[in-house]
Design a protein that fits this description.
By secondary structure, the protein is mainly alpha-helical. It is built from 6 helices and 2 strands, in the order βαααβααα. The radius of gyration is 16 Å and the shape is globular.
Amino acid sequence: MKTAICPISDKRINENTARGNAFLTVLLLTAYVLTSNLLIPAFLFADFLLRSSDLSKYSPFAFISAKINQWLKIKPKYINAGPKVFSARIGVVFSLSVLISSLLGWKTSVLIFSVIFGICAFLEAVFAFCVACKVYPFVYRLYFKPGIYRQ
């Protein structure tokens, strides 16, 4: 039987804030594709770096999303933070890939990374579908081979 696994954390996060973060990511990626302003992927990288570590309280996106949820009176829905932290780490990789590709003038790579990143963020924002949770089992198997840590 195949089982899906996802990272588990002792912390909880408001899923609606995470979905707001994803929506803001889609907006900024769209703005970047239209303007090629390097500050946008640099900002995304910094924000994802904060959210992927234990510094999410300093994330501008998390702050804005939480305030929008309060303003719209959207009730919090607390979920395990592990999958969202893993997603943020994937976001670090993608935002850094967009930034480096931009600096190197690799326009095709920029577009490919931006579109994949944007689709993943869109799926999270609109459907609460976490692509990173689908990828995690493969990453887990790559780094933690079955049987290595068994005694």
